[in-house]
Amino acid sequence: MENVVDLKDVTKNLKGFSVNNMNLQVKQGFITGFIGENGAGKSTTIKMIMNLLKPDAGEVKLFGLDYTTHEKEIKERIGFVYDDNVFFEGLNLKDIKRIVGPAYKQWDDTLFYQYVEKFELPLNKAIKTFSKGMQMKASLAIALSHHAELIIMDEPTAGLDPIFKRELLDLLQELMIDGSRTIFFSTHITTDLDRIADYIAFIQNGQLVFNQSIHDIAENYALVKGGMELLDRDTEKAFIHIHPAPTGFVALTENIKAVKNIFGDAVVIERASLEEIMFYMKGRKSYV
C-alpha cells in the first residue's frame, strides 16, 4: 500500500517546543485523523508536510517525491483546506477562480462550477460576507477543482455549528467513495473522527504516540475498571495510566488480552474513545 505522506525521523526545534523524530505515514485512499491537544505539534507537522517549514533533520516525502527536486509537482497534487479565510476579503469566488485557476495544470472550470452549485456558494459576493462554514466550503471547492489527490485539513471543524459540521463530515465521506483521494484531517475534537476516519495518528508533546487503524485501536485499547485491592507492582504493568475513581480505579490499557489473563472477571473492560485515550495518555510518565 502506497504512502502518500512519509516522514522519516523528522525533527523541528522551535522556541520552547520541538517535534522529535517523527515517523508518520499517511496511506493512499483513506482518511487519517491527526489528533492531539492544542500545542501538541499538529500545525508544525502540517507545515513541514506543506514545505512551509523545513525540518532540522529527517526526510519528508509526498507521493514518493521530495520537495528539493519536485516541489511544483507535489503542490499540484495537494489541496489545503484552511480553518479561516486566506483570500483577500474583497474578492468573490469568480475573482479567486481567475487568479488561482491558471496556477494549476489540471484546473477544471466545469468541476469548479459544479462544486460551487453543490455547496450553494454565491459567485459574486465578497468572501468577507461568507460564514466560517462557507469559507471552508470555498477552500474545499478550489482544492477539488484542480483534482487534488491529497487534501490536508487543519482543524476544519473548529468553530462550526453542529449542523454544518455534520454536513462537512458527510461530504468528506462522499468524496472518498471512488478511492482516488486521501484526506489528512487534523483536529483536537476527536468526536469528529469517530464516524469518518480509517486511521488515527496521535501526537503528544511533539512526539508521535501511535498511528493505527480505527479497527486496531478498538481491538487494543480499552478502559479497565476495578477495585484498588487488585493493583500491585506487577498488575499495574498491564496499564498505560491508572486514575483513581470513587469505587476503585479506572485505567487505560493497550493490551486487552493481557488484562483478561491477569484479572479475569474481576474487572470491567469497556471500549475507550479517542478522547479517553488522549486523556489517559497525558497522564503516563514516558512514551513507548
From TrEMBL:
ABC transporter domain segment(s) = 2-230
Q: What are the entry keywords?
A: ATP-binding, Nucleotide-binding, Transport
- Please verify whether the record's keywords include GTP-binding: no
MF (Gene Ontology): ATP binding; ATP hydrolysis activity
Keyword match Amino-acid biosynthesis: no
Q: What is this protein called?
A: ABC transporter ATP-binding protein
**Which species is the source of this protein?**
Cytobacillus praedii
Organism lineage reads as:
Bacteria, Bacillati, Bacillota, Bacilli, Bacillales
